[in-house]
């Protein structure tokens, strides 16, 4: 069965610092991988997705993620965090089945 | 462009009562999803509609939850009777064609508290 693990429940970074959110997945075939962001009181918004091809994908708001098949990982990165990036981040996996979401990582940004 | 609309925004009920949530997807989106998001968890799919037909309801607790999508547009999710463990945010999402690689557009959700 497919599953997603986000090892970090909560991360705090300083504004301007770099960010990496971890995501590990379990899936029998080549997965489709997604990162969504949820601001307080809002629905989820797609940041980026990976299906095939270049393993480094660019998304909105300056985010990128790298697919590493050997590590079953799809980590999200941003070189310089802004205060407005404070939110909950969800990694999701799927293919020809409904998406399975991880439990999320809450990002706090401090001045 | 109008997004996915959901109402009500908040709902507080007592256990064993019934409750209904409404969702209006983005115009032209054939696929509609209802997700349950319990505090501290990621969203879990309850039911997926393609137009007005059910594609997947394998995780819907059918003894108490029901959903319909009449005319392939709006959808209603009902819980009857509610239990304490139903306290969650209920998210509606839509997509153009229903393929897994499509972008999902989410509404802001209905936060349900069962006392």
Q: How many runs of DSSP E, i.e. beta strands of chain B?
A: 11
Rough outline of chain A:
globular
Instruction: Please trace the helix and strand order of chain B, writing H or E for each element.
Output: EEEEEEEEEEE
Average pLDDT across residues of chain A? 92
Task: Give a structural overview.
The complex is a heterodimer of chains A (111) and B (115). With 111 residues, chain A is mainly β. Chain A has strands at 3-5, 10-14, 19-21, 24-26, 32-38, 44-50, 56-58, 64-68, 73-78, 87-94, 100-101, 105-110. In chain A, strands 2, 5, 6, 10, 11 and 12 form a 6-stranded mixed sheet that branches. In chain A, strands 3-9-8-7 form a 4-stranded antiparallel sheet, with no helix packed on it. In chain A, strand 10 (87-94) and strand 11 form a beta hairpin. Chain B contains no helices and 11 strands. In chain B, strands 2, 4, 5, 6, 9, 10 and 11 form a 7-stranded mixed sheet that branches. Chain B has a 4-stranded antiparallel sheet with strand order 1-3-8-7, with no helix packed on it. In chain B, strand 7 and strand 8 form a beta hairpin. Chain B is 0% helix and 48% strand. Chain B is mostly beta strands and 115 residues long. The interface between A and B is medium-sized, with 24 and 21 residues.
């Amino acid at each position: 069965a497919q599953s997603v693990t986000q090892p970090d429940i909560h991360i705090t970074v300083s504004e301007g610092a770099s960010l990496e959110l971890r995501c590990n997945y379990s899936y029998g075939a080549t997965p489709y991988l997604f990162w969504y962001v949820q601001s307080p009181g809002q629905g989820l918004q797609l940041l980026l997705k990976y299906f095939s091809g270049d393993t480094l994908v660019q998304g909105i708001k300056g985010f990128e993620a790298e697919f590493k098949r050997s590590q079953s990982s799809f980590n999200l990165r941003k070189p310089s965090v802004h205060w407005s990036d404070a939110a909950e981040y969800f990694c999701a996996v799927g293919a020809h089945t409904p998406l399975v979401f991880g439990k999320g990582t809450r990002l706090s940004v401090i001045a | 462009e109008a997004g996915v609309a959901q109402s009500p925004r908040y709902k507080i009920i007592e256990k064993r009562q019934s409750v209904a949530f409404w969702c209006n997807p983005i115009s032209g989106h054939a696929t509609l999803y209802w997700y349950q998001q319990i505090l501290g968890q990621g969203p879990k799919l309850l039911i997926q509609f393609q137009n007005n037909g059910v594609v997947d309801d394998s995780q819907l607790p059918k003894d108490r939850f029901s959903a319909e999508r009449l005319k392939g547009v709006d959808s209603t999710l009902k819980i009857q009777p509610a239990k304490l463990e139903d306290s969650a945010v209920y998210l509606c999402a839509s997509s153009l064609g229903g393929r897994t690689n499509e972008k999902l557009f989410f509404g802001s959700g209905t936060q349900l508290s069962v006392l």
